[in-house]
Amino acid sequence: MNDTCDALRRMLRRETNALYPCPRPPALQRAGARLDALAEAAPALLCMLAEPWREAVAGQETAAEILRCCALVHLYARILDDAVDENLPCHRLALLRAQPLYWRAVSRLGRLSSLPPDEGERLVRETVEAVLTDDDAPAPEYWGRKNHHLLLVPLLLSNDAAAFAAAKEPLSDALCLLQAADELDQAATADADVFARLTLETQRRDVIPRLAELGWKSLAWHLCAVVRDMLRRL
Q1: Helix, strand, coil shares, percent, the chain, to 5
Q2: Does residue 23 have a cis bond before it (omega within 30 degrees)?
């Protein structure tokens, strides 16, 4: 999937540079850097989520386009998050500029997928509801769900709502662990015990073995490294 990751990275960089053109004045540097960081890091996660369909993504334009559109939805989610949290003029302007990008991605996904629209809408609704609840009362139980828009990748690539439903729980748990690593990096959570509890719960529920069995081997290996790093730092 290296070629796919590189192509996604180039695409996201182009979109980011269109929103915050270089060279950037001081007022845009922090906002632009956040999107640059997403463009650099997100493709690896998107490709891990797409791993069971890696051959389709490499050889079929429809699957590749689904992954590209999901990447644009993820970029838009970050732009929207910055506009809500930071609410600076540059963030509001970027949100306006990103509207064609968002609608292009959503309309294209609607044409590419044969699933009922409410399957994808449910994931976006879960994301929004979890973000709203977490903002009011931050808690680890929302960390996975507030990233459920990323699960559009396995939902739409599988094109099978039942198969996706069987894998949704461990995939959500994986997103929770990845969010926990970000929270630890940012020292955003005062209760350090929460990270130990999360790793123990991950082990108790066999999250990593279940992901590997279901075809997400790269994600499972990555989570092993994430868990080891969190435990080392506690």
Answers
A1: 85, 0, 15
A2: yes
